[in-house]
Design a protein that fits this description.
Chain lengths: 340, 340
């Protein structure tokens, strides 16, 4: 067996067949829909079911970190994006861009992690592609996943649905993923015990929708963190959003790292968290449903939607622990690159 | 406006919003399904319609070449993969991995080319993602496209459907794409006038299926060329396939380049060609349908499927112009990397 990725593994011939059989099929065994044709053929959705479709590329370094790896991120990220629409994620595609010289053992670990995470999420890896780039023109491994889900009639979630009075929830502590990646990269020790939160949240979302049918939207606060996500939601719905700083769950290790480095924890990336906006009278039910799920134990109601001031346009405000209020802006430029 | 890609364009904040608005939405104007949520919600398929799903990443260099560019390849490649199942390609996702420093003007050209090609194919670009990697950890631009199509009840194409007696067709001359890319890269002049054949073939496929309803399969002979594709089909269906060398259309410029460089034109990559296996009594109808399409003018019947010898397993044979017969193997290792 080859020990590192070579250009021939991407050239469509016998070496490529070998890596597909020995690495990909070996890891994804039981995924019956992979048939050797260029497109996967999938069953007809139930009558009236719409489709949800999303894509994400993953370029994080390091490839392995506490709490996960690039493969787990790649499955969770797309599962979660599809699930935010209210759809049931069903099928994933996987596209690898490998750099010549990447260790085959690492690729096997990544594929095993993807297969395990797909099983947990209940999605099937049904089609894939592998390209190999010359040494020095990639970064070991990049992964694209795209996902297809089915969406029951009548479910209409989206940032534009938020309206004044709605409550804003998060499913758990913020900043864990971004600070974990940064600590790994810089070999910092202040975050000992911290782990990436990468997790498939589709089951949690389904449970919240069952408990709180007037949920307006889910959005995962990945790059740009909570601040960017709330600004997107405010902008899409033409509303103001006010967040209570005291109510936002952040681990002490994350807070400490952010203070030392001058980061705002509300702008740090998450991978296994959801922001959720819910009709006011269903907020408690949504919160209880989150807390009942293993990935929602630290869920909290953190804020509220209000009418925007016409002369100023939609804004996001943070009411601080000291009683002041400041505007919470989107991240400008870049804080911590390649966290996903 | 920024002139080159910066890390901040991938960080989820205001710079990323700017590149999305100024580059992607500007190019894909009219694609109404892009709404700012994390997943595109797509209409329900007609009752009984199955889905076809495929993915492909594109890493070709140079990014622009005679007859196309990486964007045109990225749309055509996935449109064609979805169409090989007999499905109507409908929706594409687009995932960019950009290298810091990549010129924004080049990105705009690529996006314009993708939009134009999507219009020709009749597919909508409905969801996307952009990542930026540090200078020296990418190669300007990599693109992943994934595609979803709808497949009418009863259509069952695939490599496993080939059976003894079937005819093998190609939709045009072989090797144009691979030799064009190599000539560009090495600044060779023997191929003057040669162009990449990158083209969306979904309409051609639909026309062939209408004319020859007992078509067994389509497969695009990209990496590994005709030789690898036929070996895949033989292996999937447990048959032998014999090709008449004289019948295979190859342009003189491609033949000349291959002779000079020691390449086998049957192992060189194509991007706008299909191999098609058809029931014997429908081969002429399929050929006529191909030739009536602008991308099938040079189509030809090039060979036949036969029973495999049980003691030897499925094989592909080439009957040469001199009357001999040799085994046509899959490409071993790599011939010409990063042609797509």
């Amino acid at each position: 067996m080859d020990t590192t990725v070579m250009l021939g593994h991407g050239s469509g011939g016998t070496m490529m067949k070998r890596i597909i059989d020995d690495v990909f099929f070996a890891a994804y065994a039981g995924e019956e829909l992979l048939r050797g044709d260029d497109a996967a053929v999938l069953p007809a959705p139930a009558p009236g079911e719409r489709l949800a479709f999303s894509t994400d590329s993953f370029v994080v370094t390091p490839h392995f970190f506490p709490g996960g790896d690039i493969g787990r991120l790649a499955v969770c990220g797309t599962v979660n994006d599809v699930a935010t629409s209210g759809a049931t994620p069903r099928y994933l595609s996987v596209g690898f861009v490998l750099e010549e010289g990447f260790p085959i053992e690492d690729l096997k670990r990544i594929c095993a992690s993807m297969a395990e995470c797909a099983r947990e999420a209940g999605v099937a890896l049904v089609t894939g592609d592998t390209k190999v780039v010359n040494r020095g023109h990639g970064d070991g491994v990049f992964i694209n996943t795209s996902g297809v889900g089915t969406l029951a009639p009548g479910v209409e979630l989206g940032g534009a649905q938020c309206r004044p009075g709605d409550k804003v929830l998060v499913t758990g502590t913020l900043g864990d993923h971004g600070i974990t990646i940064m600590s790994c990269r810089e070999s910092l020790s202040f975050s000992s015990g911290l782990e990436s939160d990468a997790a498939p949240l589709n089951h949690l979302i389904a449970e919240v929708l069952a408990a709180a049918p007037h949920t307006r939207c889910f959005r995962d606060p990945t790059r740009g963190g909570l601040a960017s996500t709330l600004n997107e939601l405010a902008s899409q719905s033409g509303t103001d959003i006010t967040v209570e700083e005291d109510a936002v769950p952040v681990k002490p290790a994350v807070l400490g790292a952010c203070e030392m480095l001058g980061y705002d924890p509300l702008q740090v990336a998450n991978e296994g968290k959801m922001v959720c906006v819910v009709a006011p009278d269903e907020a408690d039910a949504a919160l209880a449903a989150m807390r009942a799920n293993r990935y929602g134990a630290d869920a909290a109601i953190i804020g509220e939607v209000a009418s925007a001031q016409p002369e100023r346009g939609p804004k996001v405000f943070l009411r601080t622990a000291f009683g002041g209020t400041r505007i919470l802006d989107m991240l400008v430029g870049e804080q911590l690159p390649r966290i996903c």
